[in-house]
Design a protein that fits this description.
There is one protein chain. The chain is mainly beta. It contains 1 helix and 9 strands, in the order ββββββαβββ.
């Protein structure tokens, strides 16, 4: 399934989509062993790392959202909707044989 950023739809399903969870657990070394400091899973700290193809028109619309630092609604490839997110563009490249399409690498941060 395609993804959406607000109403901007990708050309096809993402090449990759990884969820990075914000699990705030830490092992603390002690003289006679270890202990664990556990602050739990912070859902608002989760983020998505996505690589996806967009038409040039839709890419420019996503780029405008990023430049304006607007919060977005992200619909992942399973149809789940995440609201009040930030988009962070990491890189993009034009497809060699298809100049009207752009491969976009970005992150979606839940806030």
């Amino acid at each position: 399934m395609k993804i959406k950023i607000n109403d901007i739809e990708s050309y096809r399903s993402p090449e990759s989509l990884t969820v990075n969870v914000d699990d705030r657990i830490e092992k603390v070394p002690l003289i006679n062993g270890n202990t664990v400091q556990d602050y739990g899973h912070i859902e608002d700290g989760d983020s998505f790392v996505v690589s996806c193809l967009f038409s040039k028109t839709n890419f420019n619309a996503v780029l405008a959202l990023w430049r304006a630092r607007q919060k977005v609604t992200f619909t992942d490839d399973t149809g789940d909707i995440w609201e009040n997110c930030r988009i962070v563009i990491r890189s993009y490249k034009y497809e060699p044989r298809f100049p009207n399409y752009v491969m976009l690498d970005f992150e979606i941060w839940r806030c």
